[in-house]
Design a protein that fits this description.
The chain has 11 helices and 16 strands. By secondary structure, the chain is α+β, with helices and mostly antiparallel strands.
Length: 454
C-alpha cells in the first residue's frame, strides 16, 4: 500500500524497507507547487489510503530517510543544511545498510565512537575524515558521510507491479455501438500488449461504464479458458453490451482483467485439428444474445426434491485427468486376488435378475389433463399428446397418492399429489391397459400426465 501511494506521485520509487520508501519528486513542482506542498499532498493521499506516515523532503535520499524515521509529521531540509537538521540524532539510529556496511562492523564502529565520547551525528561529522579513515577504515568514512548527509548512491528502483486495467474519459458522450467499438478496441489492444509483454493471458474481463446520470454499471465476462486475442474480446464485449445496453450515454470506459497462465495445447501427430475454442466461445456468445444466458450451457441437477429441477451451467473446459481443484488425478484399479479385473469376476457388475425392467418415459412438458375425481380419487382421465394421440378412458386401478412439497419460503413453491393409474382400452394401447403417472398440482388445482410406463 505504501509503494502504491508513492507511485501516485513519481515513477521513480525505491522500496528501502518494509515501512520506508523513497521517491524522486523532481518535476512535481509544476503539479503541486513547493516541496512543502508536495509533502502535504503525499501525506493527504496516504491518509486517504488509511496510512499514517511521516514525510521528509531533502536533496540527499539518505538524509530524507533518517528524517522521516526520526521526526514526526512533515520535515523539509534545504540543500546543504542536512547536518543542521540531523545533527542531534543519536548514532544508534544510523542505518549502516544505506552505507553498505555490515551490521556487526557498524556496531563495532559505533561502540568505538561511544568510547571516544562521540554519540551524535554532529559530533561524528566534526571528526577529521583522514583520522576516521586511519582508525575506522573505509567503513567509518562511509558512515561519516551518511551522518553528514553527503552520501552518494543511486536509487534502487522498484519494479512496479504490472497493471492490467485501462480506462479512458471521453470528450463527448457516446450513445451508439459503432463509436464505442473503436474505444473498446483501443483499450483492448493496449491491455493485450501488456499481457503479451508479461507472458500472461486472461480468464475474466470486467468492463465498467460511467454514464451521464453518474451511474457506473459493471459487467464481467468469465471465459472458460485463458486467451489473449483482442479481436475475440472485442466481439464478446460488443455482444454483451448489445444484450445489456446502458440506460444513457457513456462518458468513460474502464476495462480490467484477471491475468492467468496461457493455455498450452499439444496436438496429436495423426489427429485432425479441432476447431479453435475462441470460435466456440463467440458462437455461444451469439446464442446467449438470442435466447438469453439462462438457456445456453450444460444442464446441472439442483440439490432439491422438486421433480425435474435443473439449471443451466456455463460451459467450463478442464484439462483431461485434472480434478476440480486443479490438481492432477490418477485413478488406479487394483485387480482382485488371484485373477484379473473384468466384469465376470466383479460380482457387483453381474446381472442377476434376467426379468425385464419397467421403464418410465417422461413427457416434457407434462400433459395437461381433465380428470374426474369424485371424493378426491381419480376415476376417469382425458388428455392429448403432442403426436396427436389421445389418452382417454376409465381408471381401473390406481396407487397413491404420494404427496410431495417444498420451497415453501419462495414464490415458486410447489406441492402435488402423485398417482400411478392403469387405463384399460386406451388408444395408446388398445389391447391391454396402460400405466401412467399423473399428479394433482395443489397450488393451481390442475391435473397433469407426467409420463408413461413402458
Amino acid at each position: 500500500m505504501l509503494v502504491s501511494c508513492a507511485y501516485a506521485f513519481s515513477p521513480l520509487v525505491e522500496e528501502t524497507a518494509r515501512n520506508t520508501v523513497v521517491l524522486d519528486i523532481e518535476g512535481c513542482e509544476l503539479l503541486f507547487g513547493s516541496p512543502r506542498e508536495i509533502a502535504k499532498e503525499i501525506a493527504r493521499h496516504a491518509a486517504e489510503l488509511g496510512l499514517k506516515v511521516n514525510v521528509a523532503v531533502a536533496q540527499n535520499p539518505d538524509a530524507a530517510i533518517h528524517a522521516a524515521r526520526c521526526f514526526a509529521g512533515i520535515t523539509i531540509i534545504p540543500p546543504g543544511k542536512e547536518i543542521n537538521r540531523l545533527g542531534n540524532l543519536p548514532l544508534v539510529v544510523l542505518d549502516a545498510y544505506l552505507a553498505r556496511v555490515e551490521a556487526d562492523r557498524a556496531a563495532e564502529i559505533v561502540e568505538t565512537l561511544e568510547l571516544w565520547g562521540i554519540r551524535s551525528f554532529r559530533e561524528f561529522a566534526a571528526l577529521p575524515e583522514a583520522g576516521v579513515s586511519e582508525r575506522l577504515g573505509p567503513e567509518g568514512v562511509r558512515l561519516q558521510k551518511l551522518a553528514r548527509g553527503e552520501s552518494k548512491r543511486p536509487l534502487l528502483l522498484s519494479k512496479p507491479a504490472p497493471g492490467f486495467e485501462k480506462s479512458i474519459e471521453l470528450d463527448d458522450p457516446i450513445e451508439l455501438l459503432e463509436p464505442l467499438s473503436f474505444i473498446l478496441a483501443r483499450l483492448l489492444n493496449q491491455l493485450c500488449a501488456n499481457l503479451q509483454a508479461h507472458g500472461l493471458a486472461v480468464d475474466e474481463l470486467r468492463v465498467r461504464l460511467k454514464l451521464e446520470d453518474k451511474s457506473e454499471p459493471e459487467r464481467a465476462i468469465r471465459l472458460p479458458f485463458s486467451m489473449r486475442d483482442s479481436r475475440v474480446f472485442l466481439k464478446l464485449l460488443l455482444l454483451d453490451i448489445e444484450s445489456h445496453p446502458p440506460k444513457c450515454a457513456i462518458i468513460a470506459v474502464t476495462i480490467a482483467c484477471e491475468p492467468a497462465r496461457p493455455r498450452s495445447i499439444q496436438e496429436g501427430l495423426f489427429q485432425p485439428l479441432a476447431p479453435e475454442p475462441e470460435k466456440l466461445e463467440l458462437t455461444l456468445a451469439r446464442l446467449i444474445r438470442l435466447v438469453g444466458a439462462d438457456n445456453v450451457g450444460s444442464p446441472e441437477l439442483v440439490d432439491t426434491h422438486r421433480p425435474g429441477a435443473f439449471r443451466i451451467k456455463q460451459f467450463r473446459l478442464r484439462k483431461f485427468g485434472a480434478s476440480p481443484s486443479g490438481r492432477s488425478r490418477r485413478v488406479r484399479s487394483k485387480p482382485p486376488k488371484g485373477g484379473t479385473l473384468n466384469s465376470r469376476s466383479n460380482p457387483q457388475s453381474a446381472i442377476r435378475n434376467l426379468q425385464p425392467v419397467l421403464g418410465f418415459r417422461v413427457f416434457r412438458p407434462p400433459l395437461r389433463a381433465e380428470v374426474e375425481a369424485p371424493g378426491g380419487w381419480p376415476a376417469r382421465i382425458k388428455a392429448q399428446t403432442g403426436a396427436g394421440r389421445r389418452i382417454r378412458g376409465k381408471i381401473q386401478r390406481l396407487a397413491g397418492p404420494w404427496r410431495t412439497s417444498g420451497d415453501w419460503w419462495a414464490e415458486d413453491r410447489w406441492a402435488r399429489d402423485e398417482w400411478d393409474v392403469a387405463i384399460a382400452g386406451s388408444e395408446a394401447s388398445p389391447e391391454k391397459g396402460t400405466l401412467y403417472r399423473i399428479y394433482h398440482d395443489l397450488r393451481s388445482d390442475g391435473w397433469f400426465v407426467e409420463g408413461v410406463y413402458d
